[in-house]
Design goal:
A hairpin with a 4-residue loop joins β19 and β20. The chain is globular. α18 packs antiparallel against α19. The longest helix is centred in the last third of the chain and has 28 residues. By secondary structure, the protein is α+β, with helices and mostly antiparallel strands. About 40% of the residues lie in helices and about 20% in strands. Bound molecules: zinc ion (ZN). Zinc ion (ZN) binds next to α4.
């Protein structure tokens, strides 16, 4: 793929930009000092009206073509390019974009940025490639708005007030009639950034409130949120940020490289969070936690903050050379978040979530033909967005890093990291640079092991040949076809959760472990269930066997084990049709499974409940909901309170679900609550509960919200879609809606959320009819590089599930 860095190497950008959020415009003058390698150079530039280009003091000829600004007759050597341009602010959560919220009936507008992966080019002309590191001197001129904050990567160096727009370069502030839009303007000049990639530059302009704390190493941390959010919601994130930076300072050998850290919860945000250096941005639900937030909400905020802050070193200070090594950023951050949170809150037992969550999603995704490898070549800019496959680049990569860290030992691993950061600070790297840095501290060659797992997709299923895995056979494990011959270097077969492989136990081996289940370590217990689940999904063992297996855990007390029992049940659900006799049997079976334990621990959160009990209850209650346990539903409904702060937060979603079940009319009230309430978790609980309704009239009102951005924000539309698709009473209509509204869906979110539609549909579809509809909708999109892979895997996935159901449906029915 053509790299613009080959024509021009930027060293410093001086950005002098006017931003007019009222007319949705951005523009001004960009000065780039650097070295021209050719006489014709190219800059990334999307959707701009370029007015003039000077190189040094001479005006040059230019052309805007296919999102590229081409400059002609440029002198080779050190030059300074000056470009005046005008562009637009976006509304699709990419580039420099507008985010809005309602503050007591007043509409507030925020201007924020999302430049990863290649959207800086939508805000200003630049060489928008990760290896094109440069310093940024940023000046923003904005209309004066009372109490507005203007934030960027570095602290403000100075501000100036103007009573009129200074000169001709800020054309963004004049309307079509040549009139200024405001009487007063403020100019914010920020301190120069260190050398960094364009995708990490950021700013946020808007009315926000925040709280500042200073951590033990003297770094000022401020967490901001919209004015309609309770300011107490930032305390938890501030605390996690303070402790995470200390943890990384202590382990990475280089102290946090910037003067301050800001974190901002944005009302509109496509992904979960973005690690802009010194100015990290988040989806509100990923940063804000009220003092009485659920344990689950706190854990996910803690993990997200720890993830983004590890990127301040791994990603920001040292950056991958090109997007094919995106995993270098994400696999690292996705495992480091667990180490940091485990150090800060050991009582969370956060690694249990890693094993039951990330590890399992990686094992499933990685078992389909066509899945990407962790390290993935990029041939087309459109492919960059598809690289962010959460189950592979994040989860599988993290699992592989965990394997490596456990083999080396944490202390030795960190010694290598310290060397790596010192050698490559402010520069770019490839995977091999990391392996080289770690090698002196390992008793094996980290590069050899990791290349074998990172450069190709899949993982082995290991079959015991000679007792206790002293001699074994391995093949690539697949869920959409028979296993195929392949091999990976496997140091030693451990039965804990360290290695990215699964064990194909014989019935005798499996029974032996099951008999001694209580004596196994927790990770061994989880592996036993996880591997068995996968073997059954692949049809290598009959899924009917899961009926007897799950029953053995009725008296189990570990939340993590119950989490996997719920996975086994989920696996059985695909074999029964909605409202069939078999489904009734399965529901009865599930009720019998959970009844005893749930009666023992009770539905209400107790004052002395530890973290395990709280999670255990959540798992049991979810199964109990599936079982349509009306007796318990009636008890739950009694606990409903119109004032959500008065409900038991940990079981709030269960209370709402029960109420919708018994009183379908409550679903519309839930939608109203979703609109009224600002707390992101509570909002979500209400909307999710509404989507469970089975009443036809109530459902049609919810279906009407799809694509209706005024009621359900674009960032939440994908969730609405998934929840309604999961509801057996609306899944057909939801699919048909997608077929008829694909063009609308494309406009709602950015590239990353678009690719989620074919992916999540494939996870849930299981009938021949759904396969046909899926193929008809998505097959014509196979020539779109940003969707191709997701669609191919989706087709394989559904086809395999349809075949599995056909093969084992009767056996499962009999077992039930
Ligand atoms: Zn990340």
């Amino acid at each position: 793929m053509e790299r613009f860095l080959d024509y021009f190497v930027p060293e410093k950008y001086i950005l002098d930009l006017g931003i007019n959020k009222f007319d949705k415009k951005i523009g001004g003058v960009v000065e780039i000092a650097g070295e021209a390698k050719e006489e014709v150079i190219k800059l990334h530039a999307v959707g701009f009206e370029v007015k003039q280009v000077f190189v040094d003091d001479k005006e040059v000829k230019f052309e805007m073509k296919d999102d590229v600004l081409i400059l002609f007759d440029v002198p080779v050597g050190k030059i300074s390019i000056t470009i005046s341009y005008l562009g637009n602010l976006n509304e699709n959560m990419e580039g420099a974009y507008l985010s809005t919220y309602d503050n007591d009936g007043e509409k507030e507008i925020i201007v924020a940025t999302q430049f990863e992966s290649h959207y800086a080019r939508q805000a200003f002309p630049c060489v928008d490639e990760p290896a094109a590191k440069a310093e940024f001197s940023l000046k923003l001129v904005v209309p004066e708005v009372e109490d507005e904050l203007v934030l960027a990567n570095t602290p403000i160096a100075n501000t100036k007030k103007y009573f009129k727009v200074p000169d001709g370069k800020y054309t963004v502030f004049y309307n079509d009639e040549g009139k200024k839009i405001s009487a007063k303007y403020i100019e914010y000049t920020f301190e120069d950034t260190p050398r960094m990639s364009t995708y990490l530059l950021a700013w946020v302009i808007g009315r926000l409130h925040g709280k500042t704390i200073t951590n033990q190493h003297g770094i000022e941390i401020t967490t901001y949120c919209a004015l309609n959010q309770d300011i107490a919601c930032v305390d938890f994130a501030n605390e996690i940020a303070a402790r995470s930076l200390e943890f990384y300072d202590d382990n990475f050998g280089i102290p946090y490289p910037l003067k301050k850290l800001d974190q901002v919860a944005l009302p509109d945000f496509e992904a979960g969070a973005m690690e802009n250096w010194g100015l990290v941005t988040y989806r509100e639900s990923m940063l804000l936690a009220s003092p009485d937030a659920t344990l689950g909400a706190k854990k996910s905020v803690a993990l997200t903050v720890a993830h983004e802050l590890s990127h301040q070193w791994f990603g920001d200070l040292v950056t991958m050379e090109w997007w094919d090594d995106l995993w270098l950023n994400e696999s690292f951050a996705s495992v480091m978040e667990y180490y940091a949170v485990d150090a800060i809150h050991p009582e969370y037992k956060i690694f249990e979530s890693f094993f039951t969550g990330d590890c399992c999603s990686a094992l499933i995704r990685d078992a389909y033909t066509g899945v990407q490898s962790v390290h993935q070549d990029v041939h087309d800019p459109e492919e960059i967005a598809t690289l962010f496959d959460g189950a592979i680049v994040y989860a599988k990569g993290a699992r592989l890093m965990l394997m490596l860290i456990r083999l080396m030992g944490w202390e030795e691993f960190c010694k290598g990291l310290v060397d790596y950061f010192k050698e490559h600070a402010y520069k770019n790297t490839k995977g091999d640079d990391l392996w080289r840095a770690l090698e002196p501290y390992a008793e094996f060659k980290p590069g050899e092991l990791m290349h074998a797992f990172i450069d190709k997709p899949g993982y082995p299923v290991v079959t015991n040949l000679e007792g206790e895995f002293e001699a074994f056979d391995q093949q690539r494990f697949l869920l959409d076809g028979p296993c195929v011959d392949d091999g990976w270097p496997l140091p030693e077969i451990l039965e804990d959760m360290s290695g990215h492989y699964i064990l194909n136990l014989t019935d005798e081996e499996f029974e032996a472990r099951l008999d001694g289940f209580d004596k196994l370590g927790l990770e061994e217990k989880l592996r036993l269930l996880i591997d068995r689940d996968l073997i059954c999904r692949a049809g290598m063992q009959s899924p009917a066997g899961l009926v007897g297996l799950a029953r053995k855990f009725k008296t189990e007390s570990s939340a993590a084990v119950w989490n996997k029992v719920a996975t086994l049940i989920g696996n059985l659900k695909v074999f029964v049709d909605d409202e069939s006799e078999e489904e009734k049997s399965l529901k009865k079976y599930v009720l019998d499974l959970v009844d005893e334990k749930l009666s023992e621990i009770g539905m209400k959160t107790g004052a002395n409940d530890d973290e395990n009990i709280i999670r255990l209850r959540a798992n049991l209650m979810a199964l109990d909901y599936y079982a349509e346990d009306e007796d318990r539903f009636r008890e739950l409904v009694m606990m409903y309170d119109d004032d959500y702060t008065k409900m038991d937060a940990e079981i709030r979603s269960d209370i709402l679900a029960a109420k919708v079940y018994l009183e379908p009319g409550f679903a519309s009230e839930c939608v109203e609550k979703y609109q009224e309430i600002n707390d992101p978790d509570v909002k979500f609980d209400y909307l999710a509960a509404a989507c469970l309704v089975r009443d036809e009239k109530a459902l049609s009102k919810l279906l009407a919200l799809l694509g209706e951005n005024e009621i359900v924000k674009p960032q939440d539309q994908l969730y609405l879609f998934i929840w309604l698709y999961r509801n057996p009473k609306s899944r057909i209509q939801v699919f048909d809606w997608l077929v008829n509204n694909w063009d609308l869906v494309k406009k709602i979110g950015g590239d990353k959320s678009l690719v989620s539609y074919p992916t999540v549909l494939a996870h849930l579809a299981r009938t021949e009819e759904e396969y046909t509809k899926y193929r008809e909708l998505f097959e014509p999109m196979l020539d779109n590089p940003s969707l191709k892979r997701a669609v191919e895997i989706g087709l394989n996935e559904i086809k395999a599930r349809v075949a599995l159901v056909a093969k084992y449906r009767d056996e499962v029915a009999k077992a039930l």
